């Protein structure tokens, strides 16, 4: 005797197609990232890893401003930022002193004049 499988078809996992719930404040939006990257390059002249570091700082500020309770996203953004700092300044993962020095370099290397910051805010 042949048995028939009468169980329902397996459901597709994840959100329905076109769902943008994870795009809170544009943080995950590819369009947001590309537009921000382009604006940063036009206004600051930062490209490559410098541009990515500045974009990372910008994205962290947005998350803190618009979703201050979302610690998980803040931690992920900070981890990504620290990873880029380590790569740019060639700092080992366990070298705390060099990491502190690299963070001071970031503050110095990415300091922008007030006019430039104002142009970025107005974009």
List keywords for this structure.
61% helix; mainly alpha; 123 residues
Q: Could you characterize the architecture of this molecule?
A:
The protein has one domain (about 25-115). Helix 2 (about 50-65) packs antiparallel against helix 3 (about 70-90). The model has no long low-confidence stretch (mean pLDDT about 80). It has helices spanning about 30-45, 50-65, 70-90, 95-110, 115-120. The relative contact order is 0.11. The termini are far apart. By secondary structure, the chain is mainly α. It has five helices and no strands. Helices cover about 60% and strands about 0% of the residues.
User: Could you name the ranges where pLDDT drops below 50 across 5 or more consecutive residues?
Assistant: none
Q: In percent, how helical is the residue content? A: 55-70%
What's the assembly state of these chains? single chain
Main sheet summary = none
Shape: elongated
Q: How many distinct helices? A: 5
The amount of beta strand, in percent, is under 5%
Q: State the end-to-end distance.
A: 70 Å
Gyration radius, rounded: 21 Å
Number of domains: 1
Q: Which series of helices and strands comes N to C?
A: HHHHH
- Supply the helix-strand structural class: mainly alpha
* Strand runs, count: 0
Q: Mean pLDDT across all residues, rounded?
A: 82
């Amino acid at each position: 005797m042949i048995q028939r499988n009468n169980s329902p078809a397996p459901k597709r996992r994840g959100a329905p197609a076109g769902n943008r719930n994870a795009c809170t404040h544009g943080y995950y939006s590819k369009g947001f990232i590309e537009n921000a990257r382009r604006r940063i390059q036009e206004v600051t002249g930062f490209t490559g890893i410098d541009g990515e570091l500045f974009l990372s700082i910008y994205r962290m500020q947005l998350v803190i401003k618009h979703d201050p309770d979302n610690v998980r996203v803040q931690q992920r953004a900070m981890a990504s930022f620290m990873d880029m700092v380590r790569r740019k300044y060639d700092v080992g993962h366990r070298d705390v002193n060099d990491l502190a020095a690299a963070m001071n370099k970031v503050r110095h290397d990415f300091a922008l004049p007030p006019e430039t910051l104002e142009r970025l805010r107005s974009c």
